[in-house]
């Protein structure tokens, strides 16, 4: 049972006993009146699945696919999980931050890890505690739903949205509208891979839209709000820049466009080869023009043809008080002045300032979280933002309060100058907790920050250099979008293996907001990375022209130039014993890479898949009864695909994409006469593109699916028993 640590966290409304199959369960979760019925149902279902898995009633792979979309992610360490929260565009209130701190103390490792997707992760969580954590989040208006898995992940946005002097308008309400519309939306519950959207405040592209599946940058045209829209960007093992879909798309069309595009991705995207199952690969394969044509074919079936954004749902967060913090005498006035230059920003609202917290490694302890919440509540805005570089931003601070903020943040270690500069290194968890981590990225990040502060302090103020580290090539630390990027790897030397970092140069966003992907230069032992940084920065200091942007300097010198000056560090003849030991290690390095969980998994047991199709029918019927016709139709569509996939797998037919499943069912089961479908299975299913999502079609389509499902079940039973099959052929219900 979730027991609050403070009166503010009082869970007193009512208990929701969680058990399954009549079996006694020893825990209850408190469901308060603040928790929506949909969220309560989710929490109950998660507990049911946990029980079923632990009782041997649910296969591990199927359970994994389920829990991922509920924020529960496998950790490197056996027997524990990571729980990921979902804070759209990084917005978090003091009450929410305190609650996450409480949950971390009670159920996790007493650490809040801020991420590049403006989330908070809790580590070392028992899977049985996940429902309690989720209930605690929902009680304060947060969630873990679709924070992981093959879903629309957290929607990110510029952390200064709403206060940015350069913005045309606040993008926060638009990011929230997208989050709200696609949460629990059936079109994005069973996709081949994840989708990452981002909204930037201005052309400076502080949200890195160029590396997202969907990117939105504000535009005004004839006094009307809209967005430049880019699609198909992504990092990972193969980084691809997003392409422009629209130079201007009216604000009322961004949700309909995303919905139609997600339908295309769901239908045509890869599902077997995980490394090719992202939107960027689909667009690369078929071309942007064809992709946009397919998007248009899906618009008929859209739930909405126009979606007016309610900008009142997210206010700018101006405080209701005029509190001024106590006046203080500072011991290090020069350090304070440096902090003002890099960590404090004047808002477009006159008289107010935003204060950035530079959080090394993105780690915040519960007591620190409480103090941050207190500062915000008393002397700033309750609208705090988690930033994309693993920091935090406090808004609406009075100028007179800045010395006090510096003093209090400095006590916590969050007032070091250099927020979002070369001294603010972004890192993923690496081998600390991630299954895919090859090397230790967290400690390396801290070491490189120390090198900057000790030896290149001046670069904090007069350069736009960003350093980003990923523990593997998958780029969770965004290393391919950094001026100086690093990703974990290894180098075999005789019988030994050295932990290594691949050096990448020339990525990121330039001063004009143009994004680029970095070039791989050379692979070095991890322990030589600090020396690599010294060589590059000393060369930059010596050979760059006045005010020359790092990437311009890099391109002027050329890739081979940097390979030449760094190559001596890679000389295996000069390796010493320490080169074979990773940071925080005590013994020689041994690569230990597990199976990643960034994507969902396949659980191709035919009977289990048919059961999933039956569940889709239940959902379709339920939404039909509630007059939610677009949802009912899409559940039926997904059920068609799943049921067909089950039978095709029984024939050893590879099911790479949904559209291939539709075509192959016609080839292998309709053409053979095993299923009689007058106009073919593909045409039957793709009626979804031809009719408005209204009552008449919804009833017809769900009925057609129900008949098809009955025939699939009969076919399956006949195959098992050897009895003669009778297939109903009337799909014109």
Protein model, in words:
- This protein has five domains: 1-89 and 109-146, no CATH class; 164-315, Sulfite Reductase Hemoprotein, domain 1, CATH 3.30.413; 333-411, Alpha-Beta Complex (Sulfite Reductase Hemoprotein, domain 2); 426-580, Sulfite Reductase Hemoprotein, domain 1; 606-721, Four Helix Bundle (Hemerythrin (Met), subunit A).
- Helix 3 packs antiparallel against helix 10 (366-379), helix 6 (254-268) packs across helix 8 (288-298) and helix 18 (629-650) packs across helix 19 (658-670).
- 36% of the residues lie in helices and 15% in strands.
- It is α+β, with helices and mostly antiparallel strands and 733 residues long.
- The protein contains 21 helices and 24 strands.
- Strands 3-4-7-6-15 form a five-stranded antiparallel β-sheet.
- The radius of gyration is 27 Å and the shape is globular.
Order of neighbouring strands in the sheet with most strands: 3-4-7-6-15
CATH architecture grouping of the largest domain: 2-Layer Sandwich
**Number of beta strands:** 24
Low-confidence stretches: 1-26, 599-604, 723-727
| CATH homologous group name of the largest domain | Sulfite Reductase Hemoprotein, domain 1
Mean pLDDT over the full residue set: 90
């Amino acid at each position: 049972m979730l027991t609050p640590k403070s009166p503010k966290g009082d869970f007193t409304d009512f208990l929701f006993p969680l058990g399954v199959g009549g079996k006694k369960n020893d825990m209850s979760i408190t469901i308060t009146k603040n928790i929506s019925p949909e969220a309560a149902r989710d929490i109950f279902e998660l507990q049911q699945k946990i029980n079923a898995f632990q009782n041997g009633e649910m296969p591990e792979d199927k359970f994994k696919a389920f829990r991922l979309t509920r924020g529960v992610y496998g950790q490197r360490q056996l027997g524990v999980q990571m729980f990921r929260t979902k804070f759209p565009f990084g917005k978090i209130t003091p009450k929410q931050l305190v609650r996450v701190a409480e949950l971390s103390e009670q159920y996790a490792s007493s650490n809040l890890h801020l991420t590049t997707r403006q989330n908070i992760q809790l580590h070392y969580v028992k899977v049985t505690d996940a429902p309690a954590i989720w209930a605690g989040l929902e009680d304060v208006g947060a969630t873990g739903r679709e924070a992981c898995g093959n879903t629309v992940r957290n929607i990110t946005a510029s952390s200064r949205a709403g206060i940015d002097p350069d913005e045309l308008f606040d993008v926060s309400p638009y990011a929230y509208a997208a989050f709200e519309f696609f949460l629990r939306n059936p079109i994005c519950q069973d996709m081949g891979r994840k989708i990452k959207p981002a909204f930037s405040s201005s052309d400076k592209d502080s949200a890195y839209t160029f590396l997202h599946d969907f990117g939105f940058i504000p535009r005004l045209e004839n006094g009307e709000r809209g967005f430049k829209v880019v699609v198909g960007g992504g990092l990972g093992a193969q980084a691809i820049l997003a392409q422009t879909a629209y130079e201007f798309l009216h604000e009322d069309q961004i949700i309909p466009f995303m919905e139609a595009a997600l339908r295309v991705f769901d239908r045509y995207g890869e599902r077997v080869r995980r490394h090719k199952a992202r939107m960027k690969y689909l667009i690369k394969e078929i071309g942007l023009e064809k992709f946009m044509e397919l998007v248009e074919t899906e618009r008929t079936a859209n739930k909405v043809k126009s979606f007016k954004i309610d900008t009142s749902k997210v206010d700018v967060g101006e405080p209701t008080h005029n509190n001024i913090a106590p006046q203080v005498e500072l011991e290090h006035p020069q350090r304070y002045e440096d902090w003002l230059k890099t960590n404090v920003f004047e808002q477009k609202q006159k008289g107010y300032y935003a204060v950035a917290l530079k959080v090394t490694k993105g780690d915040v302890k519960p007591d620190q979280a409480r103090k941050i919440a207190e500062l915000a509540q008393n002397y700033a805005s309750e609208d705090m933002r988690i930033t994309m570089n693993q920091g935090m931003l406090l808004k609406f601070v009075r100028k007179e309060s800045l010395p006090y903020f510096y003093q209090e943040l400095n006590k916590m270690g969050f007032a070091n100058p250099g927020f979002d500069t070369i001294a603010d290194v972004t890192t993923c968890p690496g081998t600390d907790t991630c299954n895919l981590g090859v090397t230790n990225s967290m400690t390396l990040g801290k070491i490189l920050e120390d090198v900057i502060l000790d030896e290149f302090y001046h670069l904090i103020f007069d350069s736009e250099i960003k350093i980003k580290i990923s523990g593997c090539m998958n780029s969770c630390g965004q290393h391919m979008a950094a001026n100086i990027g690093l990703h974990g790897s290894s180098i075999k030397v005789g019988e030994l293996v050295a932990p290594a970092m691949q050096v990448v140069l020339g990525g990121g966003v330039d001063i004009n907001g143009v994004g680029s992907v970095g070039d791989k230069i050379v692979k070095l032992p991890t322990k030589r990375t600090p020396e690599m940084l010294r060589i590059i920065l000393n060369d930059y200091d010596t050979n760059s022209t006045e005010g020359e942007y790092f990437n311009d300097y890099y391109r002027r010198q050329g890739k081979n130039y940097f390979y030449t000056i760094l190559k001596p560090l890679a000389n295996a003849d000069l390796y010493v014993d320490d080169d074979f030991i990773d940071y925080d290690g005590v013994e020689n390095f041994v690569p230990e890479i597990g199976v990643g969980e960034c994507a969902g998994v396949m659980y191709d047991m035919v009977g289990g898949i048919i059961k999933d199709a039956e569940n889709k029918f239940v959902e379709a019927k339920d939404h039909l009864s509630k007059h939610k016709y677009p949802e009912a139709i899409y559940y039926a569509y997904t059920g068609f695909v799943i049921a067909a996939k089950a039978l095709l797998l029984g024939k050893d037919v590879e099911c790479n994409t949904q559209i291939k499943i539709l075509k192959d069912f016609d080839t292998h089961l309709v053409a053979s006469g095993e299923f009689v479908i007058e106009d073919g299975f593909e045409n039957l299913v793709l009626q979804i593109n031809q009719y408005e999502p209204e009552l008449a079609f919804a009833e017809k389509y769900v009925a057609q699916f129900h008949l098809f499902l009955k025939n699939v079940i009969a076919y399956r039973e006949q195959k098992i028993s050897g009895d003669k099959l009778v297939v109903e052929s009337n799909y014109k219900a």
